[in-house]
Amino acid sequence: MVEDTQILSPTIGWSILAILSVLWLYLGYFWGKKSKNLEGHMLAGRNVGMALGTATLMATWVTSNTTMLAPQFVLEMGVWGMLAYSTAAIGLIAFAPLATRIRKLIPKGFTSGDFIYHRYGKTTWKVFLFISLFYGIIWLISMAMAGGILMQTIAGIPYVIGTTVIIAVCVGYTLMGGLYAVIGTDYIQSLLILIGVVVVGIGIYKILDFDMTYNYLEENKPMLLSVLFPAALMSIFNNLLFSVGEVFHSNVWWSRTFALRGNVGKKAFLLSGLGWLPIPIAAGYIALSSNSLGLNIDSPDMVGPLVATHVLGEVGSIIVFIVLFCSLASSIDAVLASTADLITQDIYKKSFRPQATEQQLKRFSIIIMVAIGLLAWIISIPRVGTLASVLFFAGPMVGSTIWPIITGLFWEKANAKGALLAMLLGSTLGLVSYFTLGWYTSSLVGALVSMVVTIYFTKRSKEKFNWSVLQKLNS
Predict the structure, then answer these.
(1) Cβ atoms of residues 241 and 426 within 8 Å
(2) Minimum mean pLDDT among 84-98, 158-172, 219-233, 362-376: which range?
(3) pLDDT at residue number 64
(4) From CA 101, how far away is CA 118, in angstroms rounded?
(5) Is 407 or 175 the better-scoring residue by pLDDT?
(6) Residues 6+ apart with CB under 8 A from 347
(7) pTM
(8) Which of 326, 292, 322 shows the shortest CA–CA distance to 310?
(9) Is 50 exceeded by the pLDDT of residue 406?
(10) Whole-number average pLDDT of the chain
(11) Quick one: which of 52, 185, 359, 425 has the most CB atoms within 10 Å?
(12) What per-residue confidence (pLDDT) applies to 343?
């Protein structure tokens, strides 16, 4: 259960929720007018420029995880937790050269599944699809949960209603405008997020007594200040590899790569990663003060918003509400669109309707998007676990895809057997680690196992892949 500790009155909370919901739905309808064909709906016409591209990448990466899990990391793991979550910037930065390589190899690609299918074959593709779809649903569930927790904690809006509204609004405007609507709303959301984070950060810096906070922690919880906190040190590498796996495998980022103009992908990913980097540090920093303030933290994933609203009062609560709503919407819409594209292109078209027209594919994508939203809503209502425990359950699986993706893009001797076993063994042993050692080890184990297996089979292979196969894809 979420404890009712709201600072905003329900009237103000409902008003903000209504205004943001109507705004995003209208913008979805407005930008949806540009979506004339399948490429427009799925990839925004493959013509997204630097400003919109950078904004949509950064806004998508500023999820509930950034604004709510980063403080949770700090609350549970101290100063190293702050650094641990900031390593997620490496995911976007490291993908920059891959974006250039992807556009060069597959100029007409639609999904990450396109690459896996033609690079490694059908069996490996099936395993990859399972991982991608499982991760997409887990990500949606974590953000739907965050929406419900946020609205009830800050404004007293019931958890179920908050979860329902955030999913319904995102499904609504994404249906109407496709990737055009996603990218357009992301641009506005990224501006609101950055402004809100700066305002909250300055306000807290001026009000909080950080000397008092440090002295309290040194006396009562010295481990949170220790540089030798084993779990925290492990979480640094685990979160880094989890974020790299998230970006490298997920169709969210592949669809952005195909949507961006060919010459801006590398710069857009670099800039978005660097622009995102200070946000989790700022979000996590305030969590250290929660104990000295005497706050009752009912749910560790709400420590950041609770501290901000407690210190800054009603004005701060309004800003936090808007920032978190925007961060949630900017990620939920991206996962909805990219997951629907993956199912439409890789399952429906490849396996059931290879001769389907663009209009039939677009119609099916819309149906699937509604179904995905409904599934995430149903699963998120019981609210099982914290955001970290829910999200990192997919960690070993996404970690296991890193090396098959990297070697498949650059090494001609990378092969299906190595990629398949890397994903299977990495996922399995990573999940064992999740349940026996803790969620902060699972991505690390999955990625390391995957690396050893992939490199072993690549070095032993005598086959060489014909890159021209990818060049002809969808042309």
Answers:
(1) no
(2) 219-233
(3) 62
(4) 16
(5) 407
(6) 129
(7) 0.84
(8) 292
(9) yes
(10) 83
(11) 185
(12) 93
Q: What is the pLDDT of residues 413-428, one digit of tens each?
A: 999 999 999 999 999 9
